[in-house]
């Protein structure tokens, strides 16, 4: 097959993470009401089937190799704690958001910590069995691009 014969690259419109929560009401209160993710839609069906779709703003997919995952855990927590999947939410005020979510039922795994990549990150265990990072960017992308170790995979090509 030649490049001309290849199917077109799909256009992804949305990243949606679907999480099963045994305590659905607690998870909704935490993520919608405490974290402040606006409700986009909700559906109910037979047998008390319920789902809510919360708008988490812009989505990205962060892919890290095992060494990077281990390094992030070490920097943010001081030990290996994160499961294979971890949610990260960018917030405007990392310290107050962490306090609010702990008050709403999260367990603080690590307090807000300034990272080498110039963000303020905290780690929490949240309802629905999710391990989350709250992060507050301390520098804009242009400032961070000039720091050692920053760039894109595309910067390495060639």
Automatic annotation (TrEMBL):
It comes from the Bacteria. InterPro entries: Glyas_Bleomycin-R_OHBP_Dase, Glyoxalase_6, VOC_core. Residues 13-137 form the VOC domain. It holds the Pfam family Glyoxalase_6. Coiled coil: none annotated. This is VOC family protein. It comes from Micromonospora endolithica.
